[in-house]
Every structure is written in C-alpha cells, then in structure tokens.
Amino acid sequence: MAIFSFSEEQSLGEVRSIETSRIMVRVTDGVKLQKARVGRLVAIRSMGDEWLIGIIERVWRHPVESPSLGEEASDEGADFNTIPTEENGVCVNLVGTYRERDGERRDTFTRAVFSLPEISRAVFPIEEKALESFMGILSASSKSATTMPLMIGTYTLDGKAAAYIDADKLFQRHAALLGSTGSGKSYTVASVLEQAAELPHANIIVLDLHGEYSSMTFASHFRIAGIGDLGTEKPDAIFLPFWLLTYDEMQSVFVDRSGENAPNQALALMDSVIETKRKAIKDLGVEHLLEGFTVDTPIPYRLEDLISALDAKNDEAFDTGETYASGARKGQPKMEKGPLNGKLSRFLIRLRTKMNDRRYGFMYQSPSSYSTYDSLHALAASLLGSGKEDGRNPGIKIIDFSEVPSDVLPVVIGLVARLIYQIQFWSNPGNEGDGRHPIVMICDEAHLYLPREGSSIGPLERRALETFERIAKEGRKYGVGLMVVSQRPSDVSTTILSQCSNIISLRLANKTDQSVVKQLLPESLESLMEILPTLDVGEAVVVGDATLLPTRIKITRPRCVPRSATIPFWERWGTPKGPVDLAAAVESMRRQSRS
Asked: Matching CDD domains, A to Z (predicted)?
C-alpha cells in the first residue's frame, strides 16, 4: 500500500521556480501557508511511483499592491486604485527520492535526486500518518541486515519513529560530534558505547581527558599512570616508556629549539639513540631486527644508557699526538675538544630534570616489566584486544588521561594513537581484509590536542596533529576510524574535520563554531544549520553518509550516565549534599594523585 495518497485539497502550493536542488513554491491560500514550517518535509510527485522529498528551509508572506481601474474612470483620464494582495512562497531543498517500487523492492528511499519536478507540480506537506510511515521506512532502511543496528535516538518530526544510522559508514568515514558545553555530547558518546558493548567483538578506545566515562561499568578502564602508581604495578595503570617515542617526538620533548645549540642537540640525540638501540638489540639477542633497523624502531633500552652516551659526547676530547713541552703539564698529551664538547650541558640538565620529575614517571620511571622485549606485545593486547566476557566488553576501552601534565598531553595522546595506527598498518590484511580487526578512537575534547593550523602550534601539538591527520586521511584503509568530539570546532584542525563525512551537531551558540560546521556541509544543506542555536539539550542535527535523511534527532539518554553534568551551583548552595573533605583534597594535591 502506498504511503503517499494525497488529495488536491492537501496541496501546499505549486512549483514556480527550479534551481538544481532548490525549488520555489507559490502558495495561493494563506491558510495553507500555516502548514509550511521550516524543517518540515514535503513530497512532490516526479513520475509514476517516484516522489521527490524536500525540506522546507524558508517561508515568506509579502504584501503586494495591485493597481485596478476605478469605477468612475473616464476614457479621457483613467483613475487607478490599488488592491492589497499577498504573495506567499516557500523555498524547498530537495534531499532525496522515495520510490513505491524499485525493481523487486518496495518503499525505498535514496539521497539521490534523479529528476527535477515540472513547473506547476503540486507540493504536499508530509504529516500525520504519511510522516509516521515515511519515518518508519527511513528507520528500516538504516538497519543492518546482519548485526544489531545503531539507534541514535528518535526523529524530532515524529517522536514515535526510532532514528537509526548506518554504523559502518559512521565509523568507516569518520564522524565529528560537535556541541557547546552541556549540549549532550557525552550522553551521545555513552549511548553509542552502550550499544557497541552489546556486540561480541566491539573494538573502541575512548581518549577520556577528564575521567567523565568512569561510570561506564560495561567497559574496560585504564589510566595513564600517575604519581601514586610509581613503584608498583597495577592492572589498570598504563605506562608509556620513553623508548616508544619516535625521534621527532623525542626532539619535541627534549630539545629546546629556541637555543643556538638546538641543531647540535638534535644530532647528538639521534646518534646516541641509534647507538643505544643497536646495543640493546644485541643484548636482547634479536639481531635479526638490524636488517630493517631505524632510529624509530621501538626497542626497549635504559634511559641511563642514553644519558651515558650523551655525556660521552659532551665530554669528548681527542689526543692530538703532541705533548706539552713545559709547565706543570709537561710531557702530558695535548687534547683537543670534540665537536660537541660542552654543547650538551643544558640539554643533559633538561633531560635529567624530566627523568627525575615524578609527574612524568609514566614515561621515565616505568616498572622493569616494561623494559622487556615482550612488553610492547602486552601493551598492544591491552589497546587493541577485543571480545565479550562475563557481561563486560573489554573491547570498549576507556583510557583516562586526566593525570597527564598538560605540557606533554598532546604528544602522549599522539603516541597512543600512533601505536594503534602502526600496529593496524603492519597487521596482515588477509585474503579479504579479515586479518585486521577494525578499531575506532573517540577523541574527547579534541580541540586541546588537535588544534587548528596556525603559527601558535608548538612542536608537541604538531607531532600529535601529524599522527591524527594521517589517520583521518588513510585510516579507513587499515581499519582505524575516528570520532572527533569537541565543544569548539573552530579550534580543531580543519584537515581532520574535512575528512569527517558524518556530522552530529548539537546546540552551538558561538557564530564562529556555527560557520565552521556550515563549511563542512554541501551548500544545499547550509540552511539546515541555521537552527543550531535553537536546539534543545540532547537534540542534534545529523548529516552525512551514515544517515539517509539530514534531519533533527533527539538523542537517546544512556543508561550509564557519564560524569559530565554541570554542577548545579544555586541548587547545591541551597541544599548541600554534605561537607566536602578539603583536607583530603589538599593532600591529594600534594601527592598529585586522587587515589
């Protein structure tokens, strides 16, 4: 049975102007104009069983004064009066085509517009039973035939219709989840995680900067080791030893580029790292690695050995073959300073200072187990392992970065992302690509470590940015997807955002942020983003490859609510829950640990 069976009386108006995907509709009846609301869907019969679907983006009513000949006008001198009339119109943006029959299939919708309507075609608002049926078709079309579908919420136009999105396309082609503080970003992430946890082999890593997702009981929880974790191994504490850093990352952390000795320091660092790693390879008995060895080969070695190699270069002196002819040093050999003699002193002081700073203990004071050859295997298993067990899904991994010092946060997050990407890259793809198990990284608060391109970007941010930009451009080929979450899209790398083929935008009040989102969309959909400042909390505009119809959706509230809700100041001042233990807070500040 056809879902669209309109009568002539239900017509909103008729087509008067056609501009590619945008049409103008003339509305002759002022009462019918009341049915034309911005954001409402309309249908226009194209041919046979094919209907064009559009979204109303503008409605207007203009008064027009038409001249008329007065009754008492004579042939010699006509007397004209004016008759007030109205010109009513609607601008519609075409978004797809509905077919009652498409070969052997029935009731299909596609975002393609195969043909444009003829002039004077009737335009019908989709409402009531027709709207409910059409939304049901959208939901059914978005469901996966083999796995559990991803229901993101309900359509704002029809609250009874569940809104499903294509999860494959959502993660394959990257997604951006954007919205002002308190608009519902964390709720949206939690809702996606809860549904993904039902899949037996889900593989998602959440880069949690503030510990917001610690309430997700179905997930595995890790944290970058803090001061309280030094000296003892804990199953949920992750250390990232310095030997995992690439040469470029080491430069960004250790070398002061503003100093005049920066080139010497960089050269000495490279030589010493190569020298120390070669020795470590031989000591570990894995000489076969020397065949493809580079300065970036991740081989565990002792930081003390690297410092010793740098000390040797800083104190290096050569025997000239001559001796002193007189004085207190008579007969002693003359020594000539090496090329780096005395030029690495400040560099070594900086390196030793960082090594002894317990805030960076996760990198420089890792347990002995992280110095073994197999330690990288164990870390890879923690980051990329999947599989459901005991009602929990260890494949959903939440990594808490809240105790990482802000000055090294970008390079630490970049290090984790690079390890994930490189392990996926070097995995054997198999005959049909089944040798790689796909993984998604949810980048919370992305503006803090994936900044917009500009002169203010430092070397630390640059390293992380390069890693994530490569993932955004090439990750799809190797089974690495991104979901970029940010409250300030104007501060996030445009290169990364431009690679996100799916936009989930909650309320955005800032005009600069709104303009960034509009630039990510086709020109025909820019007007849809005019409603961003007026969205309710938890309501989003979803556009992209993962959804058949660009529309407003009310996000489903998750069962496990993240710890991101804004504290109610006035309410808490009026009815406090209890006394706050300030003494414990002071001691935690002194220990630099909440545990």
From this structure: TrwB_TraG_TraD_VirD4
